[in-house]
Amino acid sequence: MSNVSLKKLDVTLGGNAIIRRLDLDVKEGEFLVLLGPSGCGKSTLLHSIAGLIESSGGAIEIGGKDMSHVDPSERGIGMVFQSYALYPSMTVEKNMSFGLRIAGVAKAEIKRRVEKAAAMLHLGELLQRKPAALSGGQRQRVAIGRALVREAGVYLFDEPLSNLDAKLRTDLRRELKLLHQKLGATMIYVTHDQVEAMTLASRIVVMRAGAIQQVGTPAEVYERPANLFVAGFLGAPAMNFIEGSIDAQGVFAGGAVRLALGTAGGAAKAVLGVRPEHIAIAPGGPLQGRVTLVEPMGAHRVVWLDCGGRQLSCIVQGSRALAPDDAVSFAIDAQRVSLFDPDSGQRFETAGASSMLAMTL
């Protein structure tokens, strides 16, 4: 296992600055996920760590050694790409061992490493098959095994599940998490899929336009998003936002919405953020709305409410029948809201928020 430290890292491609003075420390043995939309720089950052893209400034340290200009083969990493990139004429065993054979590793050591990786990835019975005889999930496991046999200090994954169907993604996601628990290895994983990030990560790095927006555990980035971008990117459906202001007495007002925060302060504009699961439809609730859309999701439903012309999404459990145009009562858990500065987009602290919320529809 090795730690990874990025210090003031710059990456420029085609004259365009993709990564700008980025600092990041990856702890030894953790599963770090780089999460963000397409074009945010997460894959470029991963390829820079691997040495596949040359950095234009700063330093990349792996295991305490500066690897900024070291050949990829000497960085002590194993990498899994989005594409399987398996040799079609070679068996699973030959595909997994190819890099070791090229490097001149002894046959007995190659056999030990391949058998060990195959056992962890449930590939033992498939070692003599060729890629054409494998399913998509099996091929991706072979690609992962090819990285594991390197017995590297750091493993890098570049959206390895994105080409698989939903069931295979779920199955391999579970296997990857179990694999990390067995190995205890340092893993850095790139994805745009928030479900993968939330389920796999020890910590998540949310990226946008080549910059880090927030680093934290899955619970931290979901429950206490650092800014409007993180709040809106995480969650399905996304967080509800209501623009308004906070007065000198610490009361948020946004149109018909009033929320006592419990602490006095200076007047300021603010955006109130409410997760859908923190809006509860219940008989006798203090608030009133009208259903505009119901989206069945299996174990729950996403219900959209019209609140005085403002659309709010909420998550409903249970079997209560709901249909468009139904009038409903509901309540908002004011202790779970977030507040943001509308100009900078940064989070305001909301500690001590009152549980009283009054809304006139």
TrEMBL record:
SUPFAM superfamilies named among the record's database cross-references: MOP-like, P-loop containing nucleoside triphosphate hydrolases
Residue ranges constituting the ABC transporter domain according to the UniProt record: 4-234
Gene3D superfamilies linked: 2.40.50.100, Nucleic acid-binding proteins (2.40.50.140), P-loop containing nucleotide triphosphate hydrolases (3.40.50.300)
GO cellular component: ATP-binding cassette (ABC) transporter complex, substrate-binding subunit-containing
Domain of life of the organism encoding this protein: Bacteria
NCBIfam families with a match to the protein in the record: PRK11650.1
A biological process term (GO) from this entry: carbohydrate transport
PROSITE patterns: ABC_TRANSPORTER_1, ABC_TRANSPORTER_2
Record keywords, A-Z: ATP-binding, Cell membrane, Membrane, Nucleotide-binding, Transport
GO molecular function, one term: ATP hydrolysis activity
Pfam families, sorted: ABC_tran, TOBE_2
Descriptive protein name: sn-glycerol-3-phosphate ABC transporter ATP-binding protein UgpC
Keyword ATP-binding attributed: yes
